[in-house]
Amino acid sequence: MAANNRRMSGKKGAQVGSGGQRRRGLEGKGPTPPAEMRKGHAKQRAAQAKARRATGRAPQRRGGRSASELVVGRNPVVEALREGVPASTLYVQQFIDNDERVREALQLAADRGGINLMEAPRPELDRMTNGLNHQGLVLQVPPYEYAHPEDLVAGAHDEGQDPLIVALDGVTDPRNLGAVVRSVSAFGGHGVVVPERRAAGMTAGAWKTSAGTAARTPVARATNLTRALEAYKKAGITVVGLAADGEAELGELAALDGPVVIVVGSEGKGLSRLVGETCDVRVRIPMPGGAESLNAGVAAGIVLYEVARRRA
């Protein structure tokens, strides 16, 4: 074997056949870029989300996607378009009876831009909607792209604020989710967390109830809500659960002054056992009128108002 093809372990520096890799490995890589420029960093995701909200672009987040949805019928389609529900395609039946609602739907879709207008025969619309009474109008709502629970905290810190987040436990009505999103937006919150399973998602109904605020208030989806809450606690955020038998009363809870996650359960069952045990404290809303419970949207709004009042 030729001598110049052998590695000499006693030599320092680059050896024959190394291509100078050792020398390049010792070279500096320059200063560490700021967190906002590092791929995958929570601060980068928060900065990107903030820029998208400022430009009105749809969010592109790593929390996963929901399934696409169809809004069916003349009145539902017109109402969805009026409320700014995101839409990708408006399907119109061929030779449709062109009444006032059809004309308004076509005008709203044209005014918004970015919505495809497709003419389709009635049998095709029947197939798409599984035989529902579509009345010749079908609106396709694209999949919602959820945030990751960490993104909500990063977004709050990016704005120089203490995180204010609402987590929903067992809330299955999309209208309640939409109402909570609207309240979070109104009182300066930083987002809503929902479980991935057995929970309401960002459907067209939730979008409508949010009255357009879902476009600027992120909704995150957690694979496991209990673990998400534990991660928030490790990040120094107090987790406050709402419960009729809570040990503290809303007006007396000092924890609302700092970073906080408010956990709201369903009106019927309240907080699940594991989620209730994960909370740092459970708080009750005084109701002198004697009502046994409040729905999730109303309860969240009351607590968010109290937090906003104290922070002001």
Structural overview:
The protein has two domains: 67-139, Ribosomal protein L30/S12 (60s Ribosomal Protein L30, Chain: A, 2-Layer Sandwich); 147-309, Alpha/beta knot. The strands form two sheets. Strands 7-6-5-10-8-11-9 form a seven-stranded parallel beta sheet, sandwiched between helices. The longest helix has 16 residues, at 296-311. The protein is built from eleven helices and eleven strands. Strand 2 (89-93), helix 4 (100-112) and strand 3 form a beta-alpha-beta unit. Helix 2 (42-55) crosses helix 6, helix 3 (74-82) packs parallel to helix 4 (100-112) and helix 7 (174-186) runs parallel beside helix 11 (296-311). The termini are far apart. By secondary structure, the chain is an alpha/beta fold.
Task: Compose a concise summary of this entry.
Mean pLDDT is 84; it is low at 1-9 and 52-61. It is globular, with a radius of gyration of 26 Å.
Q: Order the strands across the largest sheet as they lie in space.
A: 7-6-5-10-8-11-9
Query: What class do helices, strands and sheet pairing give?
Result: alpha/beta
Q: How confident overall, as mean pLDDT? A: 84
Total of DSSP H or I helical runs spanning 4+ residues: 11
Named CATH architecture of the largest domain: 3-Layer(aba) Sandwich
Task: Compute the separation of the termini in Å.
Answer: 81 Å
Silhouette:
globular
Which CATH class of the largest domain is shown? Alpha Beta
Structure summary, number of beta strands: 11
Helix content: 25-40%
InterPro entries: Alpha/beta_knot_MTases (IPR029028), Ribosomal_eL30-like_sf (IPR029064), rRNA_MeTrfase_TrmH (IPR004441), SpoU_MeTrfase (IPR001537), SpoU_subst-bd (IPR013123), tRNA_m1G_MTases_N (IPR029026)
Biased composition (Basic residues): 40-64
Keywords: Methyltransferase, Transferase
GO molecular function: RNA binding; RNA methyltransferase activity
